[in-house]
Amino acid sequence: MPLTVLIPMVVLGIAGIALLLHLAGRSQRCVLTPVSAEMAWLRQFPGDRVAEATVARDGHAALILTDHGPGLLWAFGADTVARRLLDYDLIDRGDRLRVVFHDFTAPTVTLTLDPFERRHWLNRMQTP
Amino acid sequence: MTQRLTYPDVVQMAVPVFVALILAEFLWIAWRGRGGRYETRDALTSLIMGAGNVAVGIALGFVTWRFFMWLWQLTPLDLGHGWWVVALCFVLDDLRYYWVHRFGHRIRWVWASHVNHHSSQHYNLTTALRQTWTGTFTFMMIVRAPLILLGFHPAMVLFCGGLNLIYQFWIHTEAIGKLPRWIEAVMNTPSHHRAHHGRNPRYLDCNYAGVFIVWDRMFGTFVPELGEDRVDYGLVHNLGTFNPLRVAFHEWVGLIRDVIRPGLSLRQRLGYAFGPPGYSHDGSRDTSDRIKAQHLARHPEDAGTPGFEAPRPPAE
Fold it and tell me: Region Disordered: start and end of each range (chain B) (predicted)?
């Protein structure tokens, strides 16, 4: 197949499918509850014991305290991703807290937290 | 000896069919409210990975082609191009696929290329297109060498490989349940391949087949999809990025970082490159064998059920 046909077909096909999915509401992020956050954490770390799951008010992230230390769970599209809070930097941008993991597979997470939440999370994130 | 033999590039020809079937699957799911899930960025990443795979094939395909033609010059055998030769080539190439795929899950060097195909937490027809950009660098084309040395023309071998890839497209769906028993017994089906994409301990390292599931039954790697253990798609450690470059190269980056870290013996460095995924010199990571053993320590009632038949090392 000539590239002059293949390339437009691939580009239009990808763009068309992405647009259709977006317009059909398939871009919504997962919304967590304390129970679903705990389940999602255990899906990633089945050997952990979860002591506390604090869900952000926007429902897109949760701070998880476990017997292995604190961890962060966040909405990743319609699903979730979890990482232990072991090796990371924090960038405070007012209403947003940016967590920079030193991890090529999960580089950054931006948390939207109100001032009270931010104080609470920062305190808990440093809990050993 | 046949020097010039041409077959159509069936994968490129199938692109419009792929797009049409993705639309059909999505509309089916939207209409019925079941049969799978779609998410915009996940699907977009998968489609970009697929487009990148085709682009890399166009750019680097000559490496494989020249290697195969070099082998073709070496062999005195030429089976010709009758229909039965093509059929036999298709079956043997599927056996080749089984082993390359198995290596792809058991050798980190090959897993580094294949991992991106498993990196979606979704399972739909776009997942089928989430293909590697780095397959050439695994040198797994060597596994096709016996076919060419046996007298199958390189063009025929690549044609059969293309048909194999096209077959595997339609099995990446949750919209189709289990098929009649005789089909499930012989062919790779959506059910068998769903199990292959599972990150549940039960489904790790199973169902490597491309077209014929009989290879897994023969070589002891078959695990049926079980209703009581719903497949959880994705990686043991799921990615936190939709960036196609990170998806394509993340395991290579991890592999190189591990291999060059200071203070390791040569054996340990080789372990990081060619050992099973999850190998670590200090036991700080989990291989699939250890993940299964840890699961059995938590759920001893699963011992002896599909996926947990073989004896496993201690969980630690």
Answer: 277-316
Q: Is the pLDDT of residue A125 over 70?
A: yes
Cβ pairs A/B, distance under 8 A: 107
Given CB atoms, is B33 within the 8 Å cutoff of chain A? no
| ipTM given for this complex | 0.94
Query: What is the dihedral sign for C-alpha B256, B246, B46, B158?
Result: negative
Q: Tell whether A14 is covered by a domain.
A: no
**Cα-flanking dihedrals φ and ψ of residue A86, to 5°?**
-115, -45
Q: How far, in Å, CA of B51 to CA of B83, rounded?
A: 31
B51 φ, ψ (degrees, to nearest 5): -65, -40
Residue A57 lies in a domain: yes
How far is A57 from chain B, CA to nearest CA, in Å? 21
Query: What is the residue extent of each domain of chain B?
Result: 10-180
A104 CB neighbours in chain B (<8 A) are: 246, 250, 253-254
Query: With an 8 Å Cβ cutoff, are A106 and B51 in contact?
Result: no
A72: which 2 tokens? 């962060």
Please list every residue in chain B whose beta carbon sits closer than 8 Å to the beta carbon of residue A103: 240
The residue of chain B with its CA nearest to that of A75 is: B240
Total count of residues recorded for chain B = 316
- Over residues A52-107, the pLDDT tens digits come to 999 999 999 999 999 999 999 999 999 999 999 999 999 988 778 999 999 999 99
Q: Which two tokens mark B20?
A: 């049409």
Split into its structural domains, chain A has a count of: 1
Domain encompassing residue A57: 34-125
The answer on pLDDT for B23 being more than 80 is yes
Mean pLDDT of chain B: 95
pLDDT for res B311: 59
